[in-house]
Structure of Ubiquitin carboxyl-terminal hydrolase:
Amino acid sequence: MLCDCRDIYQREHKEVIKQNDSDIHKEPLKTDGSSINTGLERSYSSPNLLQLGDRKTPQIDRTSKPHISSRNQNGLGIGNENIKVSSLNWGNREERMTPIHGTVHPGITGLKNLGNSCYMNSIIQCLSNTTNLAKYFTDNSYVDDLNTNNDNTTRGQVVEEVAQVIKVLWRGQYKSISPLDLKVAVGQYKLQFDSYDQQDSHEFLTFLLDWMHNDLKKEAQIPIEMTNAEKEWDKAMNSQRSIISDLFFGQLRSTITCSSCKQASTTYETFNSLTMSLSQSNRCSLNDCMEKFVTGQKVSGWKCPKCQTPRDATKKFDFVKLAPIVVIHLNRFADSGGWLEKRNTAVDFPLTGFNLKPYLVMENTNAIMSNNIRNYNYSLYAISNHYGTMDGGHYTAFCKNATQNKWYKYDDQTVTEVSPSQVKSQNTSAYLLFYTSFPNTIM
């Protein structure tokens, strides 16, 4: 879904600063050296749409995405051979954020619109209110994990820019800041984000999580005995992990069964968000979407390995691994007579008590014992909303602040408190739902 916030930033600043290649910061910047007292409590989990490790840029299926202009849609930005070491210190960096001073509660700072950048602002506010991730950045734990010498990553630059923005959001000193350096950084690695055209927040989140995982990954401890699912997980992850994979990445088991001989073929997929298709009805529940997602679907022309000929089959998904954070993408785009249309279906979603355990399968006794003590009741803590049509609109975020235990609407630089009933009223505009199973992160 696209944003169409016309030149808000330009009207305020007359022009957006565009950096030359020599000014672009590709190496991670020095931190301010301090840990911010935000009141956030850090918690941990043992823990992916994508195969990980030293993976290539994610490939997004744009057939189910809205229209965007043709400028800068494909390809990577500046290569690593053009990377320049940043000389900005913390004071200069904060000044470049053009902050509007004003005392606010930590985490209640807005982000200025740089010109159709509300899709980015919405996602950053959702990630900023992901308590474990915010604490990881504000206490500088990420510094030791940065991969600054790997040519297959952004060499820590994207993580560094995200970290600096989140740190300032949690300082409680500013009403709003400008995330210009972050916008420039992501534009270097995906040219469509370099433009000031309309973009899709789910697409942005997918790339951002992938970049951050690769910037922060390190060797993982591998058990001696593994199930088939665990072996496929280790293969997809290239025996590596990061706080991003720990928090956001899960695993699906896909089973295709031949309707003739009943031969079954099983594969495993990692994901960092779950895309739910919406019906043409005016209203449904999130549980309805989940049931539809895991219910067996008819497949035609599947080449059965036993029959050695195309057969009708049934394909079914099960969850093998669920992350502590589950992001649900409500796909509001559908084909209607050859045309993509936006569906404003009202999806009723729970604020608390979203139980995902019934959709989980365990492949061995140890997994059953482990999953019996894990919490699979999820609570909503953030939403990325889209208002508008296929060709334009606006993004906001509704997030629950961990320290205030209150919901806030983040509309670019404007942040206002909202009630739980106002959150639930976003059922026709909710695009990405962020759920957590951590009991102490939003209450």
Q: What stands out?
A: The domain at 92-219+235-436 is CATH 3.90.70.10 (Cathepsin B; Chain A). The first strand starts at residue 100 and ends at 101. Residues 6-57, 68-87 have pLDDT under 50 and may be disordered. The chain has twelve helices and 21 strands.
